[in-house]
Design a protein that fits this description.
- The radius of gyration is 18 Å and the shape is elongated.
- The protein contains 5 helices and no strands.
- Helix 1 packs antiparallel against helix 2 and helix 1 runs parallel beside helix 4.
- With 156 residues, the protein is mainly alpha-helical.
- Its main location: membrane.
- InterPro entries: ATPase_proteolipid_c-like_dom, ATPase_proteolipid_csu, F/V-ATP_Csub_sf.
- Pfam families: ATP-synt_C.
- It is a multi-pass membrane protein.
Length: 156
């Protein structure tokens, strides 16, 4: 029972990494399928379309950032894990949940929005700025979740 604190903290690290990473993989995959269709007809749009495809990948990066900070805070990256109480471990788990859950959901929705933006760009290549703004708006909520998770982890 004395090791349960570290177990729950590591569960938080795993959730932050896995869920935001899964969301990013799904979102980037959606964008990639749409990109391949457009690029087969308009290869000159590659650079702009690549940016739109990659936008949902940021949530996975945010999850990894929270995971690294948490691993550092609990001593795993420093060479030896701290002894955590059960309550401390649960607090780390809860601190990692905002980016885990919001990262998963926002990356999927950002991928769907990127698909629509890629379709928009295919029809009107001059609308790149507007097309990029649409999936970027979804990013706002991932950034808010990142901030909440980081603030919580740093203040435990």
């Amino acid at each position: 029972m004395e090791q349960m604190g570290i177990v729950f903290a590591l569960l938080g690290v795993a959730c932050a990494t896995l869920f935001s990473g899964i969301g990013s993989a799904l979102g980037v995959g959606m964008g990639g399928r749409a990109a391949a269709g457009v690029l087969s007809e308009k290869p000159e749009l590659f650079g702009k379309i690549l940016i739109l495809q990659l936008l949902p990948g940021t949530q996975g990066i945010y999850g990894m950032l929270v995971a690294f900070v948490t691993l550092s805070q609990i001593g795993i990256l420093g060479g030896g894990a701290r002894q955590l109480t059960l309550e401390e471990g649960l607090l780390y788990l809860v601190a990692c949940l905002p980016i885990a859950v919001v990262g998963l959901i926002s990356a999927i929705h950002q991928g769907k929005t990127s698909v629509a933006a890629i379709g928009m760009l295919a029809k009107r290549p001059d609308t790149f700025g507007k097309a990029m703004l649409l999936p970027a708006m979804v990013e706002t909520y991932a950034i808010l979740a990142l901030l909440i998770s980081l603030l919580a982890v740093f203040n435990l």
